Structure formats: C-alpha cells, structure tokens
Amino acid sequence: MKTYFRSYAWAVLVFHLAAVVWGAFVRASGSGAGCGERWPLCNGQIVPRAPLTATLIEFSHRLTSGVALVSVVVLAIWAYRVFPKGHVVQRGAMLALVCTIMECAIGAALVLLRMVATNTSFSRGLWLAAHLTNTLFLLAALSVTAWLATTNYRSSFPYPQLQHLRQVFALSTVGFVVAAILGGFAALGDTLVVSTSLTESIRADFSPFSNIFVRLRILHPIVAAVLAVCLLVIAIRVTASNRNTTVAKRLSATVGVLVILQCTFGIANIALKTPTWLQLLHLLTADLLWIGFVLLAVESSPWACTSALECPPLTPQHAI
C-alpha cells in the first residue's frame, strides 16, 4: 500500500504543477472572466454551451481545480489509512488539503469580486499575493508528503550547524515568498500594459503615470537576483561539504542548476518582452526551484523526524 501511496503522492504533485501553470495561462491570456461573474457555475451553466475560447480556457481551469481538490482529499484519507497516527506524512497531507481548500476559496473570490481580466486595482494585487503565497505552501506540503513517504529521513547536517541552518532556510523562504509576489505583480503588469520595445518598457517602469503593478515590476529582478545568490551559496556549501549525504548533495546541485536556468529565463523574458510561453516556462522553473529548495531543507534539517526514526535531542551546546 505504501508503494502505491508514494506513486500517487508524486502524481498529485505533478498534476498540481500543471494546474498552477495552466492558471497562469488563464491570467496571461486574459481569460479570467471567461465564465463571467458566476462561481462555481460557468456563465450560469454547469457545462457552457457554444463557449468562446476564453470560456473554454477558464472552464478547463475550474475543472482541473476541482480534480486537484478531489486528489488531495484522497491523498489525506489514504495517508491516515497507511501511516501510523501522528506520522509526519499525515500532517503534510492535511496541510496540503487545507491549502487546496484555501486555493479554491481564493480563486472563487477572485471571480466573484471581479479581480480578473482587465481589473487594475491594487486590491487585485493583494488577492494575487495571497494566491501566490498559498500556492507555494501547497506545493511545499505536497512535496514534503511525497518525499517523506518515499525516503527514510535522516538529518545530514551536524547538530552544531542546525541553528544557523534553520535561520538561513527561514530567510530564504521569506525571500521566495517576496520574489513570488513581486513576480506575480510583474506578470500582471506585463499583461495589463504591453510594451513594444525594451526602452518603452523601462520608461514605463519609472513613469509616475504608469499602473502600480508596472512600476513595481522593476523590484522583481532585484529581489530575485539577491535570492539567487543566496541559493547558490547554500548549494555550493552543501555540495562541497563532506558531512552531507549523497541525496543532500544531489538536491543542492539540482537547486544550483535551476537557479541558473531561472535567471536565464528571467533575462530572456525581459529581452523578448515577456511572451506567454516564456512566462509559463519561467513560472514552472520557479516552482521546481521552490520544490527543490523545500526538499533540500527537509533533507538537511531534523524538524521532520518521524516516530520511527527519531533524531537525538539537541543539547544546549548544539543550539549555540
């Protein structure tokens, strides 16, 4: 049963990644209002008749969101049937379920409050920030659930380094959230205002007459660059250390490669004036980088120890 659960947990994670990318396509294509102001019905119908392209895109996104909710409900129930009471996989599955319900609620609010399509209000940005933050924690919960259901967890870092390591990962997590929110603002600005040249785009970034999301998008590459440097430092230190497991080193190498890819796609996005396909590739790589970072944090720290494999308690000298 556990073998099937592991395969299912990874499949759920992959499906959610696809759903997140498709949701970004809904925004990039301007199809967020394709089903009107109705939810969960689409233009007042369960299945829209003679739908337009925008309606098909939005309706398919709602269908995938519904499937995603059902898949996580099954994941949570299955986790409680397969693993012993209080197991960390159960907690991860329940957190994923809570985040999925919140994801659906935020998506419904965006539609009902008309925070879609050409809405340029700052309130839309706040809802978008909540949506992106929740998505990060949802992907993290699903990743940890699948990872800990697959591996026999053991901390690879020596205990004297744990206190500092937790701080580094915590700060990096905050950096990820901020970069994701600013990235969402930048993508929204690119959707609302289409520039014909790089010069015009830069001029719009600094114009006091530009939309707030257009003026904020300059912050995204700055924060992303700082975060990229921090992640590369972490990856290099983990890979170079002879005290870490092979798994931790492979994860750190993966994180390093994804950082370089993400920076490349970010630069290409600016140079090519943010084509939709490149925006989606940029988002997918960002999500994969986040997942790699989360798994590296789990592999490198004892906060996820299970009852079957207890980590030794920290002594005062270890906490220094």
Strand content: under 5%
- The termini sit apart by 42 Å
Could you report the average pLDDT, rounded to the nearest whole number? 82
Number of helices: 10
Task: Give structural notes.
This protein is mostly helical. The protein is built from ten helices and no strands. The protein has helices spanning 2-28, 53-82, 88-112, 122-150, 162-192, 198-205, 212-216, 219-240, 246-271, 276-300. The relative contact order is 0.12.
SSE order and pairing:
Layout: H1 2-28, H2 53-82, H3 88-112, H4 122-150, H5 162-192, H6 198-205, H7 212-216, H8 219-240, H9 246-271, H10 276-300
Helix pairs in contact: 1-2, 1-4, 1-10, 2-3, 3-4, 4-5, 4-10, 5-8, 5-10, 8-9, 9-10
Task: Give a brief outline of the structure.
With 320 residues, the protein is mainly α. The protein is built from 10 helices and no strands.
Give keywords:
single chain; about 325 residues; mainly alpha; 10 helices; about 0% strand; flat; disordered C terminus
